[in-house]
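Help!! Second protein's tokens look totally different from the first
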Amino acid sequence: MPTTLTAFADVTTSDSALRRFLHGLPGVDAVGLEARAASLGTRSIKTTAKAYAIDLAISMIDLTTLEGADTPGKVRALSAKAVHPDPTDRTTPMTAAVCVYPDMVATAKAALNGADVKIASVATAFPAGRAALPVKLADTRDAVAAGADEIDMVIDRGAFLAGRYLETYELIKAIKEVCVREDGSAARLKVIFETGELSTYDNIRRASWIGMLAGADFIKTSTGKVGVNATPANTLLMLEAVRDFRAQTGIQIGVKPAGGIRTTKDAIKFLVLVNETAGEDWLSNHWFRFGASSLLNDLLMQRQKLSTGRYSGPDYVTVD
């Protein structure tokens, strides 16, 4: 299938055209969506498949520290854990990325020292996004210049909820443009919707389409900084969106649920959602990520349980 957005060229020519398109999308059956997400979450995963799922989930984690008290030492320790999540077992996969604030990107880059772990950086006045456009652009440029491989941006939820859809679209496009480096390479762009603040499933669907039309490489549920973050239902809805978008354009977009995914059981439920909704093409860390930190510890303990038959003591994993 050709990769093109030609069919949607007229959709983003004006705010009214984009509004007509977004409000013309099929309404979301909330009861049906939640029932399907719950049903898929009951799938039984046996031992061999569970071992595969645990390693796959580890390889999909964006190991994250986004606190005001972050120090270079903490970022270096997190980077070391990303490369060798279990120092006692070198068969353990690396995580997909470490995710830090822009001022910690250079520290992470030095600590990773060429390891096959991406550096993701939040930007655009994360987590609230309450800043002027020049500030958001500068924030992103700084992270890219420091060596970020990926940018996790936040949309202006106030603009979106006020119905200023074209403004939301143009913000994403502008950030996408500054992700391109002078040599022509580009940081991949993850667009965070903060689904817990969007109020309705219809809004999540509309935000997903705005992000995809504007050039997002990933659409992401949340910052992890509000009460409601990633849920099976909102992630299922976003997986349906990327599946439908590829069917219409040939362009594949990744999905990243973030916040609130803490256990191996949770992670496996999300992997089932991916497989049953978008399909096997999304079952790699190039197209699906977990925004998490505590999740990794549980995955490591469950991994050791499968290999040794017993659970580790509380000192088996580091406390991040």
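Here's the second one for comparison:
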Amino acid sequence: MSALHRVVRVASPLAALGLWQLLTSLDVNLWLRFEQFPTVGEVATAFADRVGTEAYWQDLGHSLRRIAAGFLLAAVLGVAAGTAVARSRWASDLLDPLVEVVRPIPAIALVPVAILLLPTNEQGIVFITCAAALFPVLVSTRHAVRALDPVWEEAVRTLGGGRVRVLFSVVLPGALPGIFGGLSVGIGVAWICVISAEMISGEYGVGYRTWQDYTVVDYPGVFVGMATIGVLGRLTSTAVESLGRRVTAWLPGSAGRRTSGLRSRAAGRPADPLPAPTPAPVPLPQKEPVP
């Protein structure tokens, strides 16, 4: 990343904060009304006060625990179901109709179902979080597995490999980019739904605290909750994408070769040489016709 891009990345949020401070401090009231908005300074003061309280970190821990449980469960179920649907005609006939019917339903609309089925609110919130992240992972895995070139599977079978060897040597490694694409989308959707579920039926968590601040007209507290949600979502999404880049670094491509070379040089070993180009065929001299 060049220095100019780094400057732009830093200047963009700072410019947004400066514009926010300007509009709220001047009580701008044109089409948009900023006179009731808290200023950046008020939000920063409220944030500093909240960080020093035990309740803030307890809410943070509850939300992170719910996200971890729901997202990991969705990742396992989504990859397993997506692979089964893509590889088995019976699984496709059994699951595809159900997936396509349930998938358009917003996960937050499943709150009444969670209340009726599960004994505690905690389990209901984890269920809603899992349902939100499940379908992006499942659909991405299904498409990634179906898009694989069958020549690799045929090669493994020719060498005597069975279905399990094909699954773990060809299917899952080849589908990793698509799987992590679904995981990256799923973690963002999971945060949306866990916060919404905490607002509706939670007793603790960032979403619950943000809604409580709204009900008591503590607008700086509301923005503290929003900022916390944004930072948590950014950190978890970055973690998933970073893990995906590390896991798929072996895939062919210039980026993968550069990464491998840098790691080899950092470890004091020479990088793997690139394959030498195949020389072009030299044309043979033609004989002149005999008169």
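Reply: Different proteins will give different token patterns, so don't panic. Residues 254-285 have pLDDT under 50 and may be disordered.
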